[in-house]
TrEMBL record:
Subcellular location as annotated: Cytoplasm
MF annotations from Gene Ontology: DNA-binding transcription factor activity; RNA binding
Protein name: Transcription termination/antitermination protein NusA
Its biological purpose: Participates in both transcription termination and antitermination.
Entry keywords, A to Z: Cytoplasm, RNA-binding, Transcription, Transcription antitermination, Transcription regulation, Transcription termination
Coiled coil: none
Lineage start: Bacteria, Bacillati, Bacillota, Bacilli, Lactobacillales
This protein's record includes keyword Nucleotide-binding: no
SUPFAM superfamilies reported in the protein's UniProt record: Nucleic acid-binding proteins, Prokaryotic type KH domain (KH-domain type II), Transcription factor NusA, N-terminal domain
GO annotation terms (biological process): DNA-templated transcription termination; transcription antitermination
């Protein structure tokens, strides 16, 4: 058994990349527990494993004391000096106590330890592989679902998509191929656990990077995303090249680029708006397709404003169930209160030239 165990450790290191020293350390600790359990011993023991010959020896470790109170843990100075004249109070003495039939127990324990380390190594390989995909898009296949999750096969691991991360406008069937965003990878006791999403704003960002080379290259930059998954999203973009139109680039010729993303997300509508340094213009752009006459900032709250729109565009600015205004607020990180022009003229003049309302593509 001894030679076989040494060979197994060598093979484990070569094939699985598991250091022999790590396995031996774990094996020695396991053998200590096995000895105490099988021989009903409470004494302090150590196990030495000879990595060359494979021999296993058990030692009882006792501390040299003046007066022995616990024979399992202590030895008198007088008794220690009989072993060697060099011992002093506080020293530790190791006595070999290896049982004759300990080899059988050692073999069983070694097998369990090695199998455990192999499983851990395999889990770590999968964990490290999918940790690289965290915050990225991967393509998987729907395997099954229950009341809590959609289970998506990513090849060597099964990812889970919680209900909150599933698109409300989508139904998932077995063997469907879907693109998902990896939100988190955990190395749990049950193995690597990968969490994925179809609703994360970052999924939308990665899809734009795939479809728009200028975004992937950084010529056009996505500054903010507000999304109500499966229904509508607003994406703010800016150009790092004055010769490149950020909105037109993201939308693509005849809307082809953005249409690919809309199709991937089951018809989710996209508003692509230009991000600008001027907060008033940016807020006006964010409320696209509504026309904005004025943006009045609250002097007591720098992240709050009132937006004035023509009366006939009030419902368009607010949007169905308040969606347009809500997404614009999230996109800009401003609290936006929308007022019709007629309501504001009774209180303060409105300057139509305060805001540049350049039209952006829908």
């Amino acid at each position: 058994m001894n030679k076989e165990l040494v060979g197994a450790l060598d093979a484990l290191e070569k094939e699985k990349g598991i250091k022999k020293e790590i396995v031996i350390e774990a094996l020695e600790a396991a053998l200590v527990s096995a000895y105490k359990r099988n021989y009903d011993q409470a004494q302090n023991v150590e196990v030495d494993f000879d990595a060359v010959k494979g021999n296993i020896k058990v030692y009882a470790v006792k501390t040299v004391v003046e007066e022995v109170e616990d024979e399992q843990q202590q030895v008198s100075l007088e008794g220690a000096l009989k072993v060697s004249r060099g011992y002093e109070l506080g020293d530790e003495i190791r006595y070999e106590v290896t049982p004759q039939n300990f080899g059988r127990i050692a073999a069983q324990t070694a097998k369990q330890v090695i199998m455990q380390r192999v499983h851990e190594a395999e889990r770590n390989v999968v964990f490290e592989k999918y940790s690289e995909y965290e915050n990225e898009i991967v393509t998987g296949e729907v395997e099954r679902q229950d009341s809590r999750f959609i289970y998506v096969s990513l090849g060597t691991v099964e990812a889970v998509m919680p209900v909150a991360e599933q698109m409300p406008n989508e139904s998932y069937k077995m063997h469907d191929r879907i693109q998902v965003f990896v939100t988190k990878v955990e190395n749990s006791t049950k193995g690597p656990q990968v969490f994925v999403s179809r609703t994360a704003p970052e999924l939308l960002k990665r899809l734009f990077e795939k479809e728009v080379p200028e975004i992937y290259d950084g010529v056009v930059e996505i500054m903010s995303i507000a999304r109500e998954a499966g229904d509508r999203a607003k994406v703010a973009v800016r150009s790092n090249d004055e010769n490149v139109d950020p909105v037109g680039t993201a939308v693509g010729p005849k809307g082809q680029r953005v249409q690919v993303i809309v199709n991937e997300l089951g018809g989710e509508n996209m508003d692509i708006v230009e991000w600008v340094d001027d907060p008033a213009r940016y807020i006006a752009n964010a409320l696209n397709p509504a026309e904005v006459l004025d943006v009045i900032f609250d002097p007591e709250n720098e992240r709050s404003c009132t937006v004035v729109v023509p009366d006939y565009q009030l419902s368009l600015a607010i949007g169905k169930r308040g969606q347009n205004a809500r997404l614009a607020a999230r996109l800009t990180n401003y609290k936006i209160d929308i007022k019709p022009e007629s309501e504001m003229t009774d209180n303060a003049p409105v300057d139509d030239n305060d805001v540049d309302t350049e039209e952006t593509e829908d």
